[in-house]
Structure formats: structure tokens, C-alpha cells
């Protein structure tokens, strides 16, 4: 009899480098951030700190009571919602367009590349590019508006907080709708074609097929998109920071920009920045749990509950015997 070799140990060996990297670059920074949120650590090059035993949550109270943090949190939520809603609507429309068997589109690959291309461009490049587009007194948009007679003279549009916030919303939507579309299309392509064929035989039109078969079948993909978009939206940094550095008058400041300013932009309050980071971590975690709960598969939950009840009944019956 030949002894069978076990290769499980090699899997553990190969995972050691990743595990070490995760410990050094992920777990340690997270734990250190949690720690210094309860300390008085501040100042460049300072590594000495004391835990605030007298008022352990002093930094958290300060951050939550700071008007600029409240403004940043409101701005972050508004910008995320205003770019996610049109982004998901546009992605669903493109998904319906590309996956409809009754609608033959020539050059689908070309269109998919074009839609996805903005996501390839780095956020820093896009932010600087749009800053130059809307520059004052000379910028592309100003020149076009004056040439068309819409503006009598050049206007500093970036001094208006609503306009600046709207531009950031447009940039975020433009950069991410292609990625969301690709994810949605991948989810639809994983649905059994027999469902669509049965719906077509039963006389369902395109809208009925999309809303009653496609959407329920990609609920998991929608949940993934929603959660990842929320996490990315609440951590938005590159575009607001490089576009207008949170201006004008904190109209485009986000929580990530606030944390950066606290930690590195002259004040060097590492303790307050860490406290703000932990607060955002808690907010994101709570919202993620709520989304998972609201979009859970109720039929699957009911089935699991029924199976557990049957298993308990079977065990009680076995004990009785």
C-alpha cells in the first residue's frame, strides 16, 4: 500500500508571506491607530505619548464636537449619494442594453472599453485635469461659455461651493460607472439562460424580464456594489483633496481630507486623526451591517431556519429513543 501524501502543509507554507505582510502592514497599523486615539500623541517626529486615563474619550469628544468634522461628514455622505444614484442607474441601463439577447449590438467590446476607460486614469490626473478645465480667469469651460454667449465675462465657478461639489459628483460618477457596469454585466451573464428563455416563451417583455428576473438574480452583486461603493465613497480623498483641497469654505472637504489635515497639514494631531479614523470605521461597519441585513435573501434565511428546526427535532427524537 502506497502512503498518500498530504499537500495541505504546502498551502500553509505558501500563505506565510501574505500572513506576515498582513500582520505588519494591516493589523499593526490598525491596532496602533486604535491605541493612539486614546493618547495625547502629536507633533512631528514625536514617539512619546501618554494614555488619557483621566478622560479616555477626550479625542473622540473633540472630533465629534468639531464643526469642520460635521461639515466633512455631511459633505461625504452627500457627494457619495449624489454620485452613486446616477452611477447605479446608468450601470443598470448599460447592463440591460448589453445583456439583452433580443438586442444585437455591434462592437460591444469597444463600447465596454470606452465606458471602463475613465476608471483606469488615476484620480490625481483627473482632479488636476478638471481643475484646469474650470480654471479662472482662463480655462476651457470659461472660454466655451463666453464663446457661446452664456457668460458675458469669465466667471470663477470654483468659488461656488455647490458648483464645486457638483463637479466632484460628476467626476466620481464618470470614473466609476464603467466599473459598476462591468460588475453588473458579469453578474447577469452568470444567470442561467433557461430563465430568460422561459420568460420569453411566457410572453414577458424586456422590462418585465429585467425587473422580475435579472434584478432578483443579481441581488448579491447589487449588495457587493452597494457596500464597496459606500466604503469607497466614505473614504473619498484623492479628488476632493487634489481638486480644491476641500474648498471653497470647506464645501468639498470630506472626512478623509479632514483626517489628513489633522494628521499632516501643519497641526500634526495624530491622536485626533486616529479618533476620527475609528469613528469612520464604526460608521462604515454599522452601515454595512444594515445593508447586509436589508438585502439578505429572506427565502434562504427561512430555509436555513427550517433546516435548523428539523435538525433540533431529529436530535430530540434520537434522545427520546
Concise account of the structure shown:
By secondary structure, the protein is mostly helical. The chain has one domain: MetI-like (MetI-like fold), CATH 1.10.3720.10.
Structural notes for this entry:
Helix content is 73%, strand content 0%. By secondary structure, the chain is mainly alpha-helical. The chain has one domain: MetI-like fold, CATH 1.10.3720.10. The longest helix is centred in the N-terminal third of the chain and has 33 residues. The two termini are 42 Å apart.
CATH topology: MetI-like fold
Series of H and E elements: HHHHHHHHHHHHHH
Helical segment count: 14
Helical amount among residues, as a percent range?
over 70%
Number of domains: 1
Structural class: mainly alpha
| CATH architecture assignment name | Orthogonal Bundle
Largest sheet: none
Mass-distribution shape: globular
Question: How many angstroms separate the termini?
Answer: 42 Å
For the record, the CATH class is Mainly Alpha
Q: What's the β-strand tally?
A: 0
CATH superfamily: MetI-like
What's the alpha carbon Rg, rounded to whole Å? Answer: 26 Å
- Kindly state the mean pLDDT as a whole number? 86
Strand percentage lies at under 5%
Weakly predicted, low-confidence segments:
none
Amino acid at each position: 500500500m502506497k502512503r498518500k501524501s498530504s499537500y495541505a502543509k504546502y498551502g500553509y507554507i505558501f500563505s506565510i508571506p501574505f500572513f506576515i505582510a498582513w500582520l505588519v502592514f494591516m493589523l499593526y497599523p490598525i491596532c496602533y491607530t486604535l491605541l493612539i486615539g486614546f493618547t495625547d500623541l502629536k507633533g512631528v517626529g514625536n514617539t512619546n505619548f501618554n494614555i488619557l486615563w483621566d478622560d479616555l474619550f477626550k479625542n473622540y469628544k473633540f472630533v465629534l464636537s468639531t464643526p469642520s468634522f460635521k461639515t466633512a461628514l455631511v459633505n461625504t455622505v452627500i457627494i457619495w449619494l449624489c454620485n452613486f444614484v446616477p452611477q447605479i442607474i446608468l450601470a443598470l441601463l448599460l447592463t440591460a442594453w448589453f445583456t439583452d439577447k433580443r438586442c444585437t449590438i455591434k462592437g460591444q467590446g469597444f463600447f465596454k472599453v470606452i465606458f471602463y476607460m475613465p476608471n483606469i486614469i488615476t484620480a490625481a490626473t483627473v482632479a488636476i485635469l478638471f481643475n484646469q478645465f474650470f480654471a479662472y480667469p482662463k480655462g476651457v469651460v470659461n472660454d466655451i461659455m463666453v464663446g457661446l454667449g452664456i457668460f458675458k465675462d469669465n466667471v470663477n465657478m470654483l468659488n461656488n461651493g455647490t458648483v464645486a461639489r457638483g463637479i466632484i459628483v460628476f467626476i466620481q460618477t464618470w470614473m466609476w460607472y464603467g466599473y459598476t457596469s462591468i460588475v453588473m454585466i458579469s453578474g447577469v451573464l452568470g444567470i442561467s439562460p433557461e430563465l430568460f428563455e422561459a420568460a420569453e416563451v411566457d410572453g414577458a417583455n424586456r422590462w418585465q424580464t429585467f425587473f422580475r428576473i435579472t434584478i432578483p438574480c443579481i441581488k448579491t452583486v447589487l449588495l457587493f456594489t452597494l457596500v464597496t461603493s459606500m466604503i469607497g465613497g466614505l473614504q473619498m480623498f484623492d479628488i476632493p483633496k487634489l481638486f480644491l483641497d476641500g474648498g471653497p469654505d470647506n464645501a468639498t472637504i470630506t472626512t478623509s481630507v479632514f483626517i489628513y489635515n489633522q494628521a499632516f497639514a501643519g497641526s500634526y494631531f495624530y491622536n485626533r486623526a486616529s479618533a476620527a479614523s475609528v469613528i469612520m470605521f464604526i460608521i462604515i461597519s454599522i452601515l454595512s451591517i444594515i445593508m447586509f441585513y436589508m438585502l439578505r435573501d429572506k427565502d434562504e434565511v427561512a430555509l436555513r431556519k427550517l433546516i435548523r428546526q428539523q435538525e433540533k427535532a431529529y436530535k430530540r427524537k434520537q434522545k427520546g429513543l
